[in-house]
Amino acid sequence: MKTKKQPNILLTGTPGVGKTTLGKELAQRTGLTYVNIGDLAQEGQLFDGYDDEYQCPILDEDRVVDELDEKMSEGGVIVDYHGCDLFPERWFDIVFVLRTDNTQLYTRLEARGYTGKKLQDNVQCEIFQTIYEEAMEAYSKEIVHQLPSNTPEDMEHNLEQIVHWTEQWMKDHN
Ligand code: DAT
C-alpha cells in the first residue's frame, strides 16, 4: 500500500450547509483536489435510476466508489457529498459535518429553488442531525467533527481550522 503525502478530507452535511463553498476555497488554500460527488456522477452518468419523489437521479454508489478509489489511495482529495456511508472508511483521514440552524437553512434552500416536500425533508434532515449520526456510525468517532456554518465568519473560521489541520497532518506524515 502506498503512503499518502496529503490527507483525504470528507465534507458532509445536509444540502445547503456550505460544503461546496468551503470545499472549493479549501482546495485553493491547500492545493488539495476538490471533488464534488454530484458533479462527478453527472459527468460520468454514474446513476442507477431516477427518484420521482425528490426529482433527482439516484447515485450508483458502487460505480462512484470504483471511479474514485485509485485517486483516493494517492491522497490529497477533498470530497463533498450530502451523505457519507457509501464511501469506504479507509478513504478518509478526517470527516467534517457542517451544521446550519434550520431557519437559515430553510432560506438557503428556498433560494436554491427547493419547495414542498423536498424543502421540508431537507430541513428536517438537519434538525434530526441525520448526517451527523450517519458519520458517527460510518467512521471512527475521533475523526468526525461538527462545524457550525451559519455566517461568513463561521466559514472563515472553519477554513482556517482545516488549513491548519492539513498543514499539521503533512508535517506529521512527511
Ligand atoms: P452545499 O454544498 O452544502 O449544498 P453551498 O456551499 O452550495 O452548500 O452553500 C449554499 C448557500 O449558502 C450558498 O449560497 C452559500 C451560502 N452559505 C454557505 N455557507 C455559508 C455560511 N457559513 N455563511 C453564510 N452563507 C453561507
Report on this model:
- It is built from seven helices and seven strands; from the N terminus they run E-H-E-H-E-E-H-E-E-H-H-H-E-H.
- By secondary structure, it is of the alpha/beta class.
- It has one domain (6-171): Rossmann fold.
- The strands form two sheets. Strands 2-5-1-6-7 form a five-stranded parallel sheet, with helices on both faces. It has a two-stranded antiparallel sheet with strand order 3-4.
- The chain is globular, with a radius of gyration of 16 Å.
- It binds 2'-deoxyadenosine-5'-diphosphate (DAT).
- 2'-deoxyadenosine-5'-diphosphate (DAT) binds at residues 13, 15-21, 108, 149-152, 154-155.
What attributes does this structure have?
alpha/beta, Rossmann fold, five-stranded parallel β-sheet, globular, binds 2'-deoxyadenosine-5'-diphosphate
CATH architecture descriptor text:
3-Layer(aba) Sandwich
Bound molecules: 2'-deoxyadenosine-5'-diphosphate
Principal-axis shape equals globular
Summed up, the domain count is 1
Quick synopsis:
Residues 36-59 are annotated as: NMPbind. The chain has helices spanning 19-30, 37-44, 61-74, 102-111, 116-127, 130-138, 152-173; strands at residues 9-12, 33-36, 47-51, 56-59, 77-80, 94-99, 144-148.
Q: How do the strands and helices of this protein lay out in sequence?
A:
Elements: E1 9-12, H1 19-30, E2 33-36, H2 37-44, E3 47-51, E4 56-59, H3 61-74, E5 77-80, E6 94-99, H4 102-111, H5 116-127, H6 130-138, E7 144-148, H7 152-173
Parallel strand pairs: 1-5, 1-6, 2-5, 6-7
Antiparallel strand pairs: 3-4
Helix pairs in contact: 1-7, 4-5
